[in-house]
Predict the 3D structure of the following.
Amino acid sequence: MIVCVCHRVSDRDIEREVRQGCGSFEELQDELHVATACGRCADCARDTFDVARACRPTAAETLASNAARVIPIAPTRLAA
Ligand code: FES
């Protein structure tokens, strides 16, 4: 869904920024320029940002998720 028509910013763009560590709405505006022209999208953009932040996994959840993806590698034999 397009959130900001002026800058063609979608909800996915906002969610991606949050996943990549965007910590504030002002930082989001610096990155995507959302809600910096006509301003009609400001409420929706802020709501989308807040929901994305609330749904963002915690550091512990991210670590657990990444640990589950590690593929153990068997030790190689060294030639004697
Ligand atoms: S619609 Fe986002 S600034 Fe105009």
Summary: The chain has a mean pLDDT of 88. The first helix runs from residue 11 to 19. Residues 4-7, 34-41 surround FE2/S2 (inorganic) cluster (CB under 6 Å).
